[in-house]
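Hi,

Apologies if this is the wrong queue. I'm a grad student, and the batch job for S-protein homolog from Brassica carinata produced an output file that my downstream script rejects. I'm not sure whether the problem is my script or the file. Here is the sequence I used:
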Amino acid sequence: MDVNNNMIKTLARWCLVLQAIMISSNTVALKEPDYVNMNITIRNAMTGLIRPEIVYRCQSKRKDYGWHRSTKPGMQFTFPIILIKGESKIPAIHICNVRSVLGTATLVIENTYLDAEMCPRSSCAHEVTPKGIVFRGLEWDFKTVFPKLKPAEYLELPWTPWPNRT
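Support response: The file is valid. Your script probably expects a header line. Output copied below for reference.
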């Protein structure tokens, strides 16, 4: 009788331990990831020029994406970045040097976790145009009672002309 009682108690303890392990593993599996993926897109929109070619290099503190050449309007380069969720105020800073026949531009792109939610699947792009670098994407509209996302397009950075050579 004592042997059966001890075996039943031991079996009950093991069942409780297994149940606790299963519950804790389910909560870990249901937890959202602590990071979000985002893409930064640079698009060539240099229409109306004899030489619409652009050359650009983007880099961050941790990674250099190298030099890229876009010879025709419509070509684009997309590079992925990873943003940490809890750090919504800490931006991921990327510096892009862009060169064309019209001059140079050094674009500083700061992205936070909230930007990644506003621009899913490369819906936001930095377009290189004859005027300069234009941002096309979504931004928050705080003029209404309930803020909502609206399409935005504005000139981020004009060209710095090449120095004159004599």
